[in-house]
């Protein structure tokens, strides 16, 4: 499965197995089985990975309500954002538009949460987990 994930050619798989100390009598049947089932393995890997939309662009607009019949001389800011993301499920990476309408307080909370998550990636524990995951995958 890891060979299909890395899209190895049979020669690279054989050399990797030989370098790992696998006997040559076992390497040949493994490479043959990999070659015969490569499409199935690749399909399994593709379906088992998490596919999230990829960011393409973002547009934003600030709207301010300057008053109403009941509330005079008040300013109520509002932020409207349009996110374009590509859909990994589609074959031609078709873009999808999503709108987010929020007040300034909610936008500040989202920004603070994203900054906290970004800072958490710099901790020792997160770096250790990333190293362990890269060894597995």
Overview of this protein structure:
The protein is an alpha+beta fold. It has six helices and three strands; from the N terminus they run ααααβββαα. The chain has helices at 2-5, 10-19, 24-36, 38-48, 104-120, 124-136, and strands at residues 54-65, 76-86, 95-103. A hairpin with an 8-residue loop joins β2 (76-86) and β3 (95-103). The chain starts with a helix and ends with a helix. The model has no long low-confidence stretch (mean pLDDT 83).
In summary, what is this structure?
This protein is α+β, with helices and mostly antiparallel strands and 137 residues long. The protein contains six helices and three strands.
Uncertain parts: none
**Hey, roughly how much beta strand do the residues contain?**
15-25%
N-end to C-end Cα span: 10 Å
Strand order of the largest sheet: 1-2-3
| Global geometry | elongated
Order of helices and strands: HHHHEEEHH
Whole-angstrom Rg: 25 Å
Keywords:
50% helix; alpha+beta; 137 residues; three-stranded antiparallel sheet; 23% strand; 6 helices
């Amino acid at each position: 499965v890891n060979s299909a994930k890395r899209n190895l050619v049979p020669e690279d798989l054989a050399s990797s197995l030989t370098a790992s100390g696998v006997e040559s009598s076992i390497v040949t049947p493994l490479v043959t089985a990999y070659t015969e089932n490569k499409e199935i393995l690749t399909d399994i890997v593709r379906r088992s990975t998490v596919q999230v939309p990829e960011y393409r662009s973002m547009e934003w607009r600030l709207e301010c309500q300057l008053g109403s019949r009941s509330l005079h001389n008040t300013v109520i800011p509002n932020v409207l954002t349009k996110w374009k993301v590509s859909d990994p499920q589609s074959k031609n990476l078709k873009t999808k538009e999503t709108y987010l309408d929020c007040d300034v307080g909610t936008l500040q909370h989202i920004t603070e949460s994203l900054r906290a998550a970004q800072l958490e990636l710099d901790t020792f524990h997160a770096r250790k987990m990333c190293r362990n995951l890269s060894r597995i995958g």
